[in-house]
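note to self: dont lose this again. the chain is below, predicted strucutre after it. 264 aa total, dont forget to put it in the shared folder this time
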Amino acid sequence: MIEINDLVKIFHPGSINEVLALSKINLKVRKGDFITIIGSNGAGKSTLLNCLAGSYSINSGFILIDEEDVSNWPEYKRANQISRVFQDPLLGTCGTLSIEQNLALANRRGKSHGLKRGVKRKDRELFRKQLSLLDLGLENRLKDKVGLLSGGQRQALTLLMATLIKPKILLLDEHTAALDPKTALQVLKLTQQFVDTLHLTALMVTHNMHQALQFGNRLIMLHGGRVILDVSGNEKKRMTVDDLLEQFYKVRGEEFISDRMLLV
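---
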C-alpha cells in the first residue's frame, strides 16, 4: 500500500541550523500491516509520519500510496486517505463542541459539508453504537462537551473519530504518551481492536519498547534518520527488550548495558 523511496528531509537547509532528519529512507508497507516505530529522540520517527501525511514537504525521494505518487500532494488532499491521532489528546477533538458534534464532523470527512443539519437521528444511532465499543459509557453522554472528558476518554474518542470513516492509513504519533499507564493500555487495546476489525494499515510511533513488541505485526527502529531494524512475524514475537537495546547500541558502536533503557 505504501512505498517510500530514498526519502530525504532536511530542516533549515543551507543554514547553520541545518538538520538531516531523514536520510534516504526506503520502506514498503503492505496492506494490513500494523507497524510500531521506535528510536531515540531525534531519530526521525515523527518526521517520517509528518512527511507521509503531507505536514512536511520532502527534499527528495518519492512517496507512493497504492502506486500513486503523492509526494507533492498537500496535506488536505492526503487527509482523504490518511487519519491521524496525536500525542496530545486535545489536538484531535474540539473541546467546545459536544461528543455528537465532534463525531458528526468526523463522519463528514472527505465529503462536502453544505448547510444541512449537523447531527441527524440516524447519526445518533450510529454514534451510540460506535461509542459503546469504547466501553466508557460515552454512548449515554452525546450532548456533553468534549472538554469535560478526561484525557483517556478524549483520546479514545479521537481514535474512534479517526476510524469512523475507514481510512486507508492510520498514523499514531505516541498517542498514549500523555496518558497514565492503565489508560494507555486501554487505548492501545482499542487501537489493536480497531486495526484488526477494520483491517487497517497503521503506523504507530512509541518510545515504549514493551508496547512496540506487544502490539502490531511488524517493528522498525530508526536511528539517525535511517531504518536500522525491520522485523516481523515470528522474529518479532521472539524478540525481547534486551534484544532491541542490543541492536540499538550495536549500531551506535557502544557496548550493550542492559540497564541503560534509553528508548523506554
